[in-house]
Amino acid sequence: MQMEISLPDEDGRLQILNIHTSKMQQAGKLARDVDLKELAAKTKNFSGAEIEGLCRAAAFTSMYQLISIFDDGAKSPLSVVIVDNIEGLIEYNPVGPRFSNFIVQAIRDLVSQPLKADGLSFLGRHMLVLATTSCREALTDQNLTQAFSWHVHVAMLSRPEHVIAALEEDGRFTSKEQQIIEKSLSGRR
């Protein structure tokens, strides 16, 4: 017995898009200009698997932008990279638990590797990577906590002064470096 399953109609494609972007939506990582209804209309003749592949490709493109941010930071004598809501970025789900192994590995590699250019270490260059999470278990389960050299529980970092207070507690940055970081963060939320 054979059964033919037809391609999804526009409503079906919208449901599939909602399923495969739900974690991004929940984590606030789906850009505001993404219109799933428009995508459902434009993906006529796409199977469910092809729509899933489209969503994965979009997520990987976003990941490569993160890699570019780290590369740009490595070129600067003093840089700050903020990875906010890391559990949303790795698509962590405590039920299972499930996560994106590709993204976890990429973050682990980006954070763990020393700054290099043409195979030579950037001596005297500093990159501060601030990663925030509301679910430490998400990082512990994926061994991401080992990639970071310093862990601190703080209230929500909503102002530059909060970041500076955390840096002062660590003691690795000079007061001049802290001033530069604070200045670069001023006006941001």
UniProtKB/TrEMBL annotation:
GO terms for cellular component: Golgi stack. Its cofactor is Mg(2+). One of its GO terms (biological process) is Golgi to plasma membrane protein transport. One of its GO terms (molecular function) is metal ion binding. Residues 33-63 form the AAA ATPase AAA+ lid domain. The lineage of its organism: Eukaryota, Metazoa, Spiralia, Lophotrochozoa, Platyhelminthes. Pfam families: AAA_lid_3. Keywords: ATP-binding, Cytoplasm, ER-Golgi transport, Hydrolase, Magnesium, Metal-binding, Nucleotide-binding, Protein transport, Transport. It comes from the Eukaryota. It is found in: Cytoplasm. Binds 1 Mg(2+) ion per subunit. Belongs to the AAA ATPase family. Its EC number is 3.6.4.6. Required for vesicle-mediated transport. Catalyzes the fusion of transport vesicles within the Golgi cisternae. Is also required for transport from the endoplasmic reticulum to the Golgi stack. Seems to function as a fusion protein required for the delivery of cargo proteins to all compartments of the Golgi stack independent of vesicle origin. This is Vesicle-fusing ATPase. It comes from Schistosoma bovis (Blood fluke). Gene3D superfamilies: 1.10.8.60. The keyword Magnesium applies. It catalyses: ATP + H2O = ADP + phosphate + H(+).
